[in-house]
Protein 1
Amino acid sequence: MKGSKPLKLIFLKPVLIGFSALIFPGLGHLLLKKWLRSAVLAFAILLLFLFGLKMEGKLYILGSDQLIEIVLFIADFCNGIPYILAKYWGFGEGNLENQSFEYGTTYLAVAGLLNLLVAINAYDIAVGRKH
């Protein structure tokens, strides 16, 4: 067929957009040229993440046998590059003595879960299910 894209390329673009959205908040929508949506989502997710760090919340790592810690790691890891940088620079250790520790930990997890939803939204837009 003339003018049709190979099936591999049609499938690959949405997957790359969804994956890039997981790597950094708002990046998938930026690649889709949804500038305002990208900026708003990136701002909201990064603000939640920074508030969580400021409240001395804990960023979890993989290596526990407790289900809740594994779930929290997955939620935290969905923050992408901000998670990796925060762990590399020594943030997110958590301070149980801080009154806002639990709020901070929750903010960090919610930021990651929100980024996961945003990545799914970017994928849906890329495949044409949403606008």
Protein 2
Amino acid sequence: MGPSGRDIVQFFYIDSGADFTVIPYRIGQYLGLSAQGQAVHEVQGINGAVGVIYATLSMTLGSLTFPVEVAWAQLEHVPLLLGRKDVFDRFEIVFRQRDGVVEFREPGTET
């Protein structure tokens, strides 16, 4: 959830190489983010440099809602990436390739 109080359901690529969770420009706008007076930082990705603004949003995975610092891309054509900061430390992420399953487990829980 962003400053606008709006929620949005999205599917992200899980990217263990991404330091931050990345969202495209339009999604940040919808969630109420504003570039006005914000510092734009240049980050490097697989397709080169992208200008981003760092912001904190609320994210819900399963039944857990928590703050996550995101890199809000200042262009539209970037994928939604679920990065390490604020997400990977919070969950045990299990990939069962053969079954086509990815599980996000809160530490200490088993399914």
Protein 3
Amino acid sequence: MYYVNKEQIEIRLAYLSIVSETLRLLRDKSSVNDLVDRFALERAIHVAAECVTDIGSYMIDGFVMRDAASYEDIVDILYGENVFTAQLNELLSSLVKLRKPLVQSYYHLLDIDLTSLSLQLPEGLDLFKDAIVKYLDSELS
């Protein structure tokens, strides 16, 4: 029997919905190059990466999947366990690769184009959320 911390996963999934909605609002604004909007976009992408990796860590620990060697590995492990599709894996891998620059090299971020990722991310986060819930339901019932 697995011990999966569903409570912590659900808390993060709920917050991920807020992040997804924030990204939608920013996407719909015409002034995404505004400094405040840029900071909001960076923060939303950073928190999305944290949510995905936190949820992934809870899933890996709870279902006793192989140990992750990096943040990127968390996404690869979930994909390898058929939690989500290859297309979603590609998007989430791109997201998680931005975690380090967002946390450690934030002063260089104005040089990084976040637009492409931010356009795909709201729907991708919704798909991730659905995939996690579906996986939990199928494995824990």
